[in-house]
TrEMBL record:
Molecular function per GO: 3'-5'-RNA exonuclease activity; RNA binding
Compositional bias (Basic and acidic residues): 132-142
BP GO terms, sorted: mRNA catabolic process
Pfam families: Dis3l2_C_term, OB_Dis3, RNB
Superkingdom of origin organism: Eukaryota
Domain RNB stretches: 259-589
The family this protein is said to belong to: Belongs to the RNR ribonuclease family.
Protein name: RNB domain-containing protein
One Gene Ontology cellular component annotation held by this UniProt entry: P-body
Amino acid sequence: MLVSGLLRVNKRNRSDAYVFCEDFNADIYICGSRDRNRALEGDHVAIKLIEVDQVMLEKHEKEEAKLARNNGHPVVRKPDEEDEKEIIFGGEEDVDLVTPKFCGVVVAILDRAQKQVFSGTLGLTRPSNKRKGGDDQQHQQQRDSSVPRIIWFKPTDKRVPLIAIPVEQAPPGFIENSESFENKLFLGSIKRWPITSLHPFGVLESELGVVEDTRVQLRAILADNNVNSLPYNESMLRSIPTNMLSAEMIEREIASKERRDMRTTRCITIVDDHGGFLENALSITPVPNTNTFEVGIHVSDITAFISPESVLDKEARSRGVDVYHTIFEKVPLWPEFLKEEYTNLVQGKDRFTFSIIWTMNGSGEVMDTWFGKTVINSDAIMTLRDLQNIIDDPDNGQDDLSTDILSLYSISRSLHKSRYERALFIKPPQLDIRFKNDHYPSSITTKVHLKSECILDELQILANTQVAQKISSHFPDHALLRSQSPPNERKLRELTQYLDSLGYTIHPETPSSLQKSIDTIQNPEARAVIVTLVMKCMSQEKYFCTGAFDINRYHHYANNAPLYTHFCCPTKRYADAIVHRQLEAAIKSETMFFMEPEIVQKTAQHCNVKTRAAENANEQTQHMFSSYYLANNSGTSTNRIQDAIVVGVQENAFDVIVPGLGLERRIHTINLPLKSDTYSLSENVLHLIWVQGEATVDAGVETAISTDDDEDDDYDDSIMDTYSVRDDIDSQEDDGVLVDIGDSSDEQIKRLSIKSSSTTALDEMKKNRRRSTSIRAIQGEDAWITQKECTFPNECRQLIRPFDFVKVVVTADPIRSPPLIRVLAANPFVMKQ
């Protein structure tokens, strides 16, 4: 049986890959590079199903063969960066623990991203070579000769294999002095990959520049996520009609009943704090002689200016989504000229909008809904902070705009309260990065959510829900909707049991019961940790066409809505533009939509890919800027001490979250200066016996750049580059006090010293108590007190327990690709030698 889907490669182990099959609503496991058959991350592939037992048996036999080749000793792979980024309940299912439902092999690559390029560095020799023979013998001979025939392109994304590049394309001076190119980034592409070759062959597209330039790294991130950052060409811009907003055209639209004239209705454009999108305006008007209001959300009618299937429309479809990098750089979905001149809902200008107007009472109960095209003239532009200022000081503003904001806020709170009885509201923490004028970050904080956000959020969700109902009822086989499957049942069940063992109870039976149980946790640190872990269990949202899915898969879990879509952001999401066209066709009672269901589904899948690529680009950008910020924008590797919260403990490792920096890391004991470590399963406690006086950053830690567990048997070889994180630091004895983030790393590590003291039997009993709802660190006790409680200076022993605070060393090295941010436990027994 043949099925198809998009392939994704395990970041931690390139030997494992998966294809999500819509027909089965499940993953198909692809074991090893041979079965992946040269397919790359994101390829649309055809899969032949094979017996699961057969695959798992062959996998076991491979592992046994590796064991035999290693004289019976297990092949121990040192944890790499991707291992460190994956914490408890995160990442792909471990097939050794959870047997996959389906297994398969790739038999064809049906589709691959056009003009795909990768960022990376150049090497004169192949970074890793464990086999001798075949192509490898040829490659070895080339290395031994004075003039090699190929050079090696090492992609930044370790899921992409090494690419062989003709030596003729080597930059001038590279053959003679390849070391001088180590910190330069290039773009490369794959041109062919013969079935008999270990590696693909490609070309060098261009040189990006030196890695220490943040703009170079931004361009590399865009390339790795297949984001087209080229500006729209002149021919596309010329296709935009320039007379649509003329007085004559506006009057014609109104006279023909194509649009409702709402220019005299007071409207307020709401602009988000980042990105500056001016695509949503709100209005509220009391209905005379009733206790009701007409509440409107007015969305930029960008599709009025773009003909379906036009060159400009096809380019926007290809881009899929607006990619917002920083205040300095973004890749727009639509031309800036179109937005600035015609569609942004600027103050005092007539603009075309697609509106939803509800008749509702003060409690947010909807009596009637009107969909239609309108023309508005915005009275003001306000940020979320502007709205919050009015909410915080309602007596200060007595004008009509303030009255409107307060009325909208009251109704939105009622809508929120109603949704609270059925929906899930948790979101991952977001970083707020502020910049200097030189592309370098000046501050990083966790974004503080404002109460005013609910005004736009609640009305957008209501609009999205009702538009979904409208288009799916009119076009039952064509509607483009957005769904979210229930959480991973196994992960959520295990998380519930795990938290219960620590004294915390969550109720995952429904979205609302889960939300309410999280809200009962009073301490913000504990709540933030639990939210992070719950998010690890959630399924990804995705667009789909109703004609391609069974109706029982339409449901959106977090919103607990049977039907949901995206309508309110056509400026930054192409999916919303499709929904606009479907809604227009529905209110005109058209019997057919111009796109067939198969094309709508293909477009939906493309939008899913582009949405995730934009999310990845955003995460990588934040990671890059965080590394510069932690390195004090110096471009050199630095260390600083932070407080972290332990979220999970296991054999040879424990997981932490660093509040305020958005860092989640697994700390492996092999990377710490320890004499020994012992994990107690019954107590869920890790005992660390430290080397007295040796700071963590003195431990000579090495990091494997990438690995492939399959390397001895399959096509891909790992790229085993290592480097040492070492910093010679003189340690001095000092009192055990809190570390000031402003101290130099030397001073911080010196101050981690803990003086010897006698430990009583009572202290020992207290330190080994079972964790419960009285967890001291999480109940707001000083972090340093908790850490001292878990240390035994006479033994140089430290206890690592879930939900305790620990001191960690955060190491940042921005001058590499990708930038490095490591988190290691700080040795609390650093004393004067």
